[in-house]
Amino acid sequence: MNLSEKQSPTKGPLVVDIYRGTTVESSHLVDVVVMDSNGKIIETLGDSSRPTFPRSSIKMPQALALMESGAAEEFGLSQKWISLACASHQGEKIHTEEVKRWLQKIGLSESDFECGAHFPYDQETEHEMIRTGLSPSPLHNNCSGKHCGMLTTSKHYHENHKGYSQYGHPVQVRLRKILGELAGINYDKAPWGTDGCGIPTYAIPLDKLALSLVPFLSESPQSRANSLRREATVKILQAVQAEPEMISGTKGLCSRVIRVSQGRAFAKTGAEGVYVGLIPHQGVVMAVKVRDGGTRAAELTALYLLEKYKGLTSEEVAEISPLTTAILKNWAGEIVGRSQVRSV
To answer: Does pLDDT of 205 surpass 80?
Structure first.
């Protein structure tokens, strides 16, 4: 599926229009990069060189540090925990209980987390906590699984895990090395800031974000050349496929994509309108950035691309779409608008 020669480098971004009635009420501009298993661009829409903070969309590549180090094997991590290492979960009990068990397995507790606490994103869980007077803990942080992975790796290397979220800690140094290898850039020279969960996040071009996912395709040159990396990527994909609700939640869009497609398609959200996707059987990866940071446009674009590149059928998209704003309803449940993804 190599369409790169047919694509114009000046082709404009995708546009996501939000209609109320028959009138466009809002529009979002979306930059898109789609690559094949050789890292060649199939399609570019908008500006692929624009600096982008991947945020949580890069958690699957980050989990390679956990897998390649041997830490996952040493501590006997289950597929649920490996999936949680890649998660932006909604703080449901299925997540917090597993995070707690994982911490116990490595001899640590939630007090060792440096991610901070917030109420669960799952409203039902949040409301139950409020009713019963419970305060959120770091277990509820949507990145607690990723932080478990970093702590596990640090324990494997017998390091002082205090300050593991800081730029100079060995945990973060290892992550920069792996992410740099995946993207083909020097992460030590990349602009960076602090993510919501406290760890460094790096501004990289959107096409480099897409390139970071290519090794998760079995036919990629990096996967073929590095058996350790190939084994790690396979185990991560198998874990997420087996335990999709761990990666976002029972009502999460990423989990629903994986569950409904039976693992033919993978999607991973990031904050501020970032999304990535993988379609292993098609040998395709994709990266999306909504310029204004709108999550609704990122979700709609992700589904649009997953269907376009045959990761999802139209029937599967229809099944998943109620989790998005594809159809606008008022508080009485009446349909009052719709969305549309279009090329400029």
So the answer is: yes
